[in-house]
Amino acid sequence: MGANWDDESIAREALKQFPVHRERLVYLGKSDNVTFQVKTKQESLNYLMKLHYATKGSHSQKAVESELLWLEALAADTTLTVPSPVRNRDNGLTAELAINASRESIVVTLHRWVNGELLDREPTPGETRSLAQLMAALHKHAMEWDAPAGFAR
User: Fold this and answer.
1) What would the DSSP string read from start to end of the chain?
2) What are phi and psi of 97, to 5 degrees?
3) What pTM, to 2 d.p., does this model score?
4) What's the distance, CA 61 to chain centroid?
5) What is the CATH code of the structural domain delimited by 7-144?
6) Residue range 21-77, pLDDT digits in tens
């Protein structure tokens, strides 16, 4: 990739490695990752793309892949709605792109979109109870799940 590639260009290039046909990319923001919503022609079939710039330490490619393995397991083993990963065209969990001449690379992931909204008020008792049930289900699965060899989380 050239030195003048911006986040959207990187996202477009990375998307070629996944079995997804985009209609358009919508920039969502930047924190540890740069995120985009990948819109398709089917309103109910959108995706979340993450450009993982911080792939050191707890954000290493191995840690990112481990997180995605757990999300796959949660989707398969529970009734929880999770942003499950979309495997790339080679059946891998991540895509990696060289972003400059020194072969520095960026890890990219793609997830199924989960609709939701930010809560800008105090949660109701029912919402708090639902969150507690969600946390309990996550803890239960984590305790019972047989993590694969090399799992790094």
Assistant:
1) --TT--HHHHHHHHHTTSS---SEEEEEEESSSEEEEEE-SSTT--EEEEEE---SGGGSHHHHHHHHHHHHHHHHHSS-----B---TTS-S-EEEE-STT--EEEEEEEE--------SPPPHHHHHHHHHHHHHHHHHHHH--PPTT---
2) -125, 135
3) 0.86
4) 12
5) 3.30.200.20
6) 878 999 999 988 899 999 988 878 899 999 997 655 556 788 899 999 999 999 999
| Residue type at position 39 | K
Burial class (CB in 10 A: 0-12, 13-18, 19+), 65: buried
> How far apart, in whole angstroms, are the C-alpha atoms of residue 83 and residue 81?
7
Distance of CA 44 to the CA centre of its chain: 17
